Amino acid sequence: MIEARLVESVAKRTRLQDGPVSFHSVTTDSRKDSKAALFVPLSGERFNGHHYLDSAIASGAIAAIWQEQEPVPTSIPASFQLYFVDDPLHALQELAQLYRDEINPYVIGITGSNGKTTTKDIVFQLLGGEPFVHRTAGNLNNHIGVPLTLLSMSKECKFAVVEMGMNHAGEISFLSNLAKPDLAIVTNIGEAHIEHLGSRQGIASAKMEMLDGLKQDGFLVLDGDEPLLNGFQQEKTVSIGFNHQNKEAIATFQSKADGFTFSFLDEKDWYLPLLGEHNVKNAAYGIWIARQVGFAPETIKERLANVTITGMRLEKVAGPNGSTFINDAYNANPSSMKAAIETIKSLPEFKRRIVVLGDIYELGPDEEALHRSVVSAIDTPITNVVCVGEKGYWIYDEVKQQNGAIAVEHVENVSDVAETIRPLLNHDTVVLLKASRRLALEQVLSAVKGGA
């Protein structure tokens, strides 16, 4: 519930003297159900949100922030309030800051090349979930999404788990100053967006802009196994990882059929029901945070044992003929692709292990070498590799050169993958799907199911 007085404070003037007292939500999408909402029309090179005011009103909006130079439609209801501003996006961001300060939750900011969403989901659940814990919905993690995340907090919110993404330097700094985290997590440093940042060191520096908005007495939790983050240690830095030199080290972890057990914070027998060794570290971040804010180990253990995460992140799905698919198709960079391959190799119950790998984008001038580097993870017990797309050819070619014992094929399109793997699917088969979001590689799963 956003009070109108906050909106008035970011406006130059209003249309009516007696407008709404409060709003149930804030939206930038005129198509969504917007009962009693404040509509914020955003504009870009190819669109102007002001043109969709009628649609927003039909969806339930009762007021709008309005760019002062835009003409006001004559069709709007007499009772519809407008808040005139110079820049609706800036007003949205300023409003989010005001609301964040008014609710004043304990904010946990999360960034990193991989694992942001999974860590967000884990932290959210270990802290108890709704109604007192709020988290970023979907991938609303940029200069528009973070304000919308903050503005969707309830009045009862005690903890806000805010995911922050970026493509360029300076973006995390802006988001961190907007959200003002009490605690910041940097999950890891990979190669995502290296095209824009030049190197992994450039990526590390951009991710560590999280410190710019971190409260003076705030904690920084980071991947202690990443050498590029060693230079960012400060008094309240907590390094977490598998290396015993970390401030808080993960010990004696063991793979189970559908997850891991491990020791951490002097507690044994933590159970994580997720695939992927890297997710043990994501869970450790969440455990440390939950302990830091006062939850008992027994409570955290119970919640961890029942944790679930957003789909298409090492998601185990039943395929045709008793086969198993690991749908990790949401996105990819070389590090996350290698980690996914290692996960497939670690699963004990399959005789045939197929990895379907596709193009990775935003890798810059070294994209061929980075695609070929993925092959360092491809060895026994992987039995089949299917590579998709123009850039996927580099992986195919490298596998052929490096490991002649593995059956490898290259196809041009995602639509060709199903026919390639369908004859191989049975109860002894596991299939990994991994590529950049643009390929929508999850379509392979629906295609093989449709033709089963």
Automatic annotation (TrEMBL):
Main localization, broad class: cytoplasm
GO biological process: cell division; cell wall organization; peptidoglycan biosynthetic process; regulation of cell shape
Domain Mur ligase central, first and last residues per copy: 110-287
Mur ligase N-terminal catalytic domain: residues covered: 23-99
Catalysis performed (reactions): D-alanyl-D-alanine + UDP-N-acetyl-alpha-D-muramoyl-L-alanyl-gamma-D-glutamyl-meso-2,6-diaminopimelate + ATP = UDP-N-acetyl-alpha-D-muramoyl-L-alanyl-gamma-D-glutamyl-meso-2,6-diaminopimeloyl-D-alanyl-D-alanine + ADP + phosphate + H(+)
Domain Mur ligase C-terminal span(s) in chain numbering: 312-437
Annotated function: Involved in cell wall formation. Catalyzes the final step in the synthesis of UDP-N-acetylmuramoyl-pentapeptide, the precursor of murein.
Protein name, entry field: UDP-N-acetylmuramoyl-tripeptide--D-alanyl-D-alanine ligase
Species per Swiss-Prot/TrEMBL record: Shouchella lehensis G1
